[in-house]
Every structure is written in structure tokens, then in C-alpha cells.
Amino acid sequence: MRYDLVIFDNDGVLVDSERIANRVLAGFLTELGHPTTLEESVRDFMGSSVTRVREVVRARTGDSLPLTFEEVLHERTFAAFRRELLPVDGIDGVLDKLEAEGVPYCVASSGTHERIRVSLTKAGLYERFGEGLIFSAQDVARGKPDPDLFLHAAGTMGVPPGRCAVVEDSPLGLRAGVAAGMDVYGYAAMTPPDRLAAARERFTDMNALVGLLSS
What we know:
Elements: E1 5-8, H1 18-31, H2 38-45, H3 50-61, H4 69-84, H5 91-100, E2 105-109, H6 113-122, H7 126-129, E3 134-136, H8 148-157, E4 164-168, H9 171-179, E5 183-187, E6 201-203, H10 209-214
């Protein structure tokens, strides 16, 4: 294994949540008078924090989303997660292999701590992380695509950025990992591969990841 730490994004990498979360987001934005399709939500907001969603809507329309936007969005998203969410196929095997090789891992996500906790718990992965290995955009001043979150995770784990691998499925996360000076592996199961062109490697089958990290 060439790395001393593997940092996983959460949505779409550990838990198969992107389609669910973006469906809820698109529906809510449309309800609020900002018509958005699932495809547009994935294109524009996948990997984003709620703060960035607010900023994009304001920049495009001049309108501000309601003060309750985040609260209502989280309630609807969590309800959908509890009904539908599953782990990404193959991720348990990846984590098993990292543990067997003694390679530390953690999660660094644009989601809130509550969202990460809810999703990992529903997917049966929370016990593999626990709060000590969970890093959220809430922990830093600037979320993805800025490198702050990944640098915070690496610093807390005591690993230099150059010894870290990032596993991401969004262009915003990819930009953040590259800006942090880390090797990024782009999971292109849902994202068009060309949008992850700056990744060290791109892959569509999670079972292939450990081999890529070791080669």
C-alpha cells in the first residue's frame, strides 16, 4: 500500500445516497420556485454543502433560500435515507482489506455530522468509523472545493498530505483533494468520467479500489 491514510467522501462513495439526496434537493428547490431536475441537481450540487447551494441559488436568481431551508432539507433527506439507503456495493470489502493491511482510513464529507452519522448508521457502516474518524464541512471555514476539510482530516490523523489518498465521486471533491496535495481516486459510477479527469485514477467498480491504491 502506497498510502498512510485513505480519506473517503461519504455520499456516493461509502453510502449510495447521491441519487436519493439530489432527488430530494431538486424537488425542494422546485417547490421553492427554482425549478431543478435530478440531473441538474447532480450536475450543479453533487458534493456541495448546503451553504454552497444557497450561494449558487442567490448568484443565479438574486433570491435567498428560506432560513428554514437546511432544517427542512435535512428532515426530508434523512427520512428518505432511513427508507432507502444502502452502502455502496463493494465498500465493506475495501474497508476489510485496508484494516487487514493496517492502513488507517476516515471520512471527510460536505455533509453535516448528523447527516454523516444518519447515513453511515443506516448503511451499517457507522461502527467502522465512529465520531473520531468523521470529519464534516462543519469543522472548517471553507468546504469543498477548497482543501480545508481534507487538510483538517489529515492533520488530525497525523498524516502529511502527500501520504494521503482521497476517494471522491464529485468534481468539487476532486478539486479539493488536488488542492490539498493529495492523490485523488475518482469513483465514476454516477459521475461522467470526463468530469473526474484530474484524478490519479478513475474507476467504476469499488472492488477495484484496493488494487489501484496499491499499484
